[in-house]
Model the fold of this input.
Amino acid sequence: MSKADTNTAHQMLADEQAVDDNLVQRLMDGSPHYVCRHCDTPVAPAGPDWRHRLTKVFEGAPSTAGPHLNDNARHYLDMDVVLRQGFCPGCFTALFTETVPARNGETP
Done:
């Protein structure tokens, strides 16, 4: 794929619906799935829990996002938090970034 090809807009198919700048919803085998708009890789079945079905997810201390986030969440909250970032498994485009409560026993 040439550099010119990567700069062109994703051509929407008849059975697609835009989700955001990085994802489209497409029917695959009769059920809706989220697909990367950049590399056309299926990301996860569509639905409210799609983020939990991603195969490429980074979790780490909030400060890994940069100096604007502090690792000492206990100063403000009564729980530990982690930075979670999900990626397309095909091209590693960041699909979401969030700061969320740490899971049981997990420390940032």
